[in-house]
Amino acid sequence: SSHLQKKRRAATARRQHLKSAMLQLAVSEIEKEQAAKEVEKQNYLAEHCPPLSLPGSMQELQDLCKKLHAKIESVDEERYDTEVKLQKTTKELEDLSQKLFDLRGKFKRPPLRRVRMSADAMLRALLGSKHKVNMDLRANLKQVKKEDTEKEKDLRDVGDWRKNIEEKSGMEGRKKMFEAGE
Length: 182
What we know:
Blueprint: H1 2-48, H2 58-106, H3 119-127, H4 137-142, H5 146-158, H6 161-168, H7 170-180
C-alpha cells in the first residue's frame, strides 16, 4: 500500500506544480496585457491630446477656449451616446438572462448517465430489428442507382392521384372500370 501512497503523492505534487505553473503564466499574461493597455493609452493621448501651448494675446486665448469648449461638447455627446448604448445592451442582457432563468425553472433536467455504446448498438437500439449492421454510412449515402431514379420518374409520370380517383368516381368511372374488367 505504501507504493500506492507514493504514487498518489507524486500525482498530487505534479498537479500542484502544474497549478502553480499555470498561475505564474496567467500572472505574466495579465501583466503583459496591462502594459499593452498603458502603451495604447499613451499613444491615444499623444494622438488626440496634443501638448497645450498657451498663446500670448487675449484674442488667441479666447479662440483656444472656444475650440476647447467645442471639443468638450463633442466628446460629451459621444460619451452620452456610448452610455445609452451600454444601458440598452445591459437591459437586453438582463432580460435574456431572466428568460434563461425562467426556462431553467420550467424544465427539470433528468440526471443523465454516460453510456458507452458503439454506433451499431445505438442504431440497433433506435431502429430495432430493422437495423442491418452496416457502419459504412458515407458509402451508403453516395451510392445512387440509376434504376431508383427511373422508378421515381415513372411514379411522377403516373400523375396526380386525385385525377385518377375523379376519373373512377361516379357512373362514368364505374362504366369505365366495368369495361376495363377491373
